[in-house]
Amino acid sequence: MDRKIFNNYIDNKCTEEEYEVISKWIISGKDKEKIKGWLRESWQNLAVEDSMEPSVDFQAILDKVHHEINLKNLPQETKDNKINKIKGWYRKMAATLLLPLIGTLGVLLIKDFYQEQNYFKVKPDEIEIIAPIGARVVVQLSDGTEVHLNYGSSLKYPRIFTGDKRTVSLKGEGFFNVAHDPENPFIVHTSNLSIKALGTSFNVSAYPNDNFVSATLKEGKVVLEKNSKQKEDLILGKMVPGQHVRLDKATGRLTSSKGNIERYYAWKEGKMVFENATIGSIADKLGRKFNVVFDISEEIKDLTYTVTLEDDPLEVILDLMKEVTAIRYTIYPRKKAADGSFSKQKISIEKR
Length: 352
What we know:
This protein is of the alpha+beta class and about 350 residues long. It is about 30% helix and about 30% strand.
């Protein structure tokens, strides 16, 4: 195999003829170690810049490869649209070293690494879509249901729904446009809450590190059930359009509100809408979007903000917060570990 063709493939610049050549080579399974060696060389030669962009680690990149392999199962037009939207960000992250290898090469690399690290836990007939840090993803399920995934979220679902239920599992945040099928309810499982629908539109937020799970109903009807390992799930009640429900993970307390629900799913359009939100809750969302860690001083944790952000750079957002409140922030450089990976960018915010 010509190294030049391989490099063109890595950089996503190969011609159709070169693509055919390298595809046949990869599928043949020959020179597996050579492939890995070339990838290692490319990775080791990469210069990681100290910027505000998310840090890179090998596990995260492999997650992105996993995500791209799953995208291969989407209709071609949908797949191309999603890849085009996030291609620029991936190149900034140097993930082009691996992401173009969507086919057998991606499987080859993931198979070994995931099995060794015990990350490959998806069932053979199950697909897992992962929205990487800084990217939103849209996927269409076999029944026609459309799912939007927010930053750092993942969705597990069967290739084909069978039986009398359409069941998926969500970690993170997703907006669901459920295809109408009264005979087969659509169920979204999270760690603490399940949402059952027939044909409707709703948002679910269930990030593992958050202390709550929430559901917001745009239209249609859904039934909420609290998950239980010891007995049958507890039915909490039905939601009506325009209702937002929040379950406290620690206490099990359920709160409900109505009106102005658009802010809960404005992220689909690239917006982050905060109404009287604490600086801590804002930092949580910014941290997921930009892959940074915030250290917020105790004396400013009660500060609140009402603002709408539209895909603004992180430093612009921080400068805006500094203008309207008496705070200052410090951005620390990422630290390089012994294995060559970099820590997340740390940002401290304190009273000015």
